[in-house]
């Protein structure tokens, strides 16, 4: 029996409508874990966004504040869900995942800057935190 295992509660999943309110009224912070090439094409047009690529997440997650609500996002919500659980495992309590990611954010008509068409080819990426995704492939 491995005594080092932690039991984590289910991660909170927020829809873009709730997130928009939290960003505007509750000083929450959006953490975008998409890679640099993805962010170069399309970004969230809201205050309080931190870009922390999944390929650097394990090395840099401690830069994120523990005393502020963090909402993680990626293109479709898979990478950011993994990052949410990673933070929970490391003692972050005020974390949630953006349900269906940037694609749903756009469908709801919330603000972005850049090429919206680029999100149609976005990778969902199921690679673990420790393995950065390779260019042109995901899993």
From TrEMBL:
Sections of the chain in a coiled coil: none
SUPFAM superfamilies: Rhodanese/Cell cycle control phosphatase
Signal peptide residues on this chain, from the entry's feature table: none
Gene3D superfamilies: Rhodanese-like domain
Residue ranges occupied by any Rhodanese domain in the UniProt entry: 24-114
CDD domains attached to this UniProt entry: RHOD (cd00158)
Name assigned to this protein: Rhodanese-like domain-containing protein
Species of the source: Paludibacterium denitrificans
């Amino acid at each position: 029996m491995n005594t080092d295992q932690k039991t984590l509660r289910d991660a909170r999943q927020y829809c873009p409508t709730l997130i928009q309110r939290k960003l505007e009224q509750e000083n929450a912070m959006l953490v975008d874990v998409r890679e640099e090439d993805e962010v170069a094409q399309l970004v969230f047009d809201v205050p309080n966004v931190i870009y922390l690529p999944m390929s650097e997440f394990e090395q840099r997650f401690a830069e994120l504040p523990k005393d502020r609500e963090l909402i993680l996002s990626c293109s479709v919500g898979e990478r950011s869900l993994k990052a949410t659980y990673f933070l929970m495992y490391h003692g972050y309590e005020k974390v949630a995942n953006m349900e269906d990611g940037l694609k749903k954010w756009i469908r709801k008509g919330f603000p972005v800057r850049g090429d919206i068409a680029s999100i149609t080819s976005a990778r969902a990426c199921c690679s673990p935190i420790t393995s950065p995704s390779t260019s042109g492939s995901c899993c």
